[in-house]
Automatic annotation (TrEMBL):
UniProt-recorded name of the protein: Type III pantothenate kinase
Subcellular localization: Cytoplasm
Family under the similarity heading: Belongs to the type III pantothenate kinase family.
E.C. number(s) listed in UniProt: 2.7.1.33
Organism: Thermovirga lienii (strain ATCC BAA-1197 / DSM 17291 / Cas60314)
Gene Ontology BP terms: coenzyme A biosynthetic process
GO molecular function: ATP binding; metal ion binding; pantothenate kinase activity
Binding site for substrate: 100, 107-110, 184
Superkingdom, natural source: Bacteria
Subunit and partners: Homodimer.
Gene: coaX
Pathway annotation from the record: Cofactor biosynthesis; coenzyme A biosynthesis; CoA from (R)-pantothenate: step 1/5
Binding residues for K(+): 129
Cofactor binding, note field: A monovalent cation. Ammonium or potassium.
A GO CC annotation given for this chain: cytoplasm
Length: 260
């Protein structure tokens, strides 16, 4: 069996294909508004590039934080691949208790990460996802999603900085050799990368204080590896955690299993 997994974020949409437990292909696209036909053509071309026969795709699961894109993706998959898509929400059987004041407010990607984290790592845990926003989600030893923290992401912060400071040069996210920058570019890099590593470490410390116990810290998302190299708290970098979580949720809900 091959499973199509789609993680629709505010900036990027990540598409992957699993053959049983193996992630055999993955692609990162811009999260633009597209018609179902455009999405269908994109998928057909991607599968062709990945040498994946269309008739081998037996299921699809979608996590989305951009509601206007939900229908075009699900309908495009149905029309061009011939399979229905499972949409992730707090109403599905996720295998975890959501101890959030309003479970429907929790982003689907945050729930997916929590599910994957519980399958792969010991709880309690804090999962840090570096995307358009940085989310830090906490799962208790009792398999409860407790909630978490949302902060601006690296790219979001940099865009705001450049948008309000005309003379500052745009820089790449390369780790500088020292915290004390020797030029403007190094100073910006140090402020952003060391600053966000410090943000994550401090938040984890506060979480551990509230829980009165240490937590396993997992990082995922596009900038995870870069920040993890500067962090004293991040223990694991798992770039495909969200895609794996989508597979776990699909298998759980497809087969009616009560164990993940």
């Amino acid at each position: 069996m091959m499973l199509l997994v789609v993680d629709i974020g505010n900036t990027h949409t990540v598409v992957g294909v699993f053959k049983r437990e193996d992630l055999v292909c993955h692609w990162r696209l811009r999260s633009h508004n597209r018609t179902p036909d455009e999405i269908g053509v994109y998928l057909l071309n991607l599968l062709k590039v990945g040498e994946i026969p269309i008739d081998k795709i037996e299921g699809a699961v979608i996590s989305s934080v951009v509601p206007p894109l939900d229908y075009p993706w699900s309908f495009g998959i149905k029309q061009y691949l011939g399979v229905d898509s499972l949409m992730v929400s707090s109403k599905l059987d996720l295998g975890i208790k959501i101890a959030y004041k309003n479970p429907s407010e929790v982003g689907a990607d945050r729930l997916v990460n929590a599910v994957a984290g519980l399958v792969k790592y010991p709880a309690p845990m804090a999962i840090v996802d570096f995307g358009t926003a940085i989310t830090l989600d906490v799962v208790s030893r009792e398999r409860e999603y407790l909630g978490g923290v949302i902060a601006p992401g690296l790219a979001t912060s940099v865009e705001a900085l450049f948008g309000r400071t005309a003379k500052l040069p745009k820089v790449s996210f390369e780790v500088p050799k020292t915290v004390i920058g020797q030029n403007t570019m190094e100073s910006i890099q140090a402020g952003i990368l060391y600053g966000f590593a410090g943000l994550v470490d401090h938040l984890v410390e506060k979480v551990e204080e509230e829980l009165e116990q240490k937590v396993t810290v997992i990082a995922t998302g596009g900038d995870a590896q870069r920040i993890a190299s500067l962090s004293g708290k991040i223990q694991h970098v798992d770039p495909w955690l969200t895609l794996e979580g989508l597979r776990f949720i699909y298998e759980r809900n497809k087969n009616g299993s009560k164990e993940v």
